[in-house]
Design goal:
Length: 99
């Protein structure tokens, strides 16, 4: 059963809810990934390269800011997003036939 952290009274509760949140995060990552493939399709039709530095900066800045709004370490989550972005760009490059 979904609980808040404050509602958890045992380590089993904590573990169950961390696993639940992890599954939800993976579902969100899968949804995000679906947009990456679609972006490549749209970019191909518009002759836009996979790597658009201005957008990369914007997404990283958003991650940093969104993390801080939630009381998280902005720099840490920006680093995680940098890895996500790098993987997305590599995937788009492959789909677009870029080197």
């Amino acid at each position: 059963m979904a609980k808040t952290a404050a509602d958890c009274t045992t380590m089993a509760d904590i573990r169950e809810n961390i696993d639940r949140v992890d599954r939800a995060l993976m579902a969100l990552f899968a949804e995000r990934w679906s947009f990456i493939g679609r972006a490549a399709e749209i970019k191909a039709g518009l002759d836009i390269p996979a790597d658009v530095p201005e957008r990369v900066r914007e997404v990283r800045d958003n991650a940093h800011r969104n993390a801080e709004v939630l009381g998280l370490d902005g720099a840490f989550y920006e680093e995680i997003w940098a890895r996500l972005i790098d993987r997305a760009i590599a995937h788009e490059k492959a789909l677009l036939g870029e080197k």
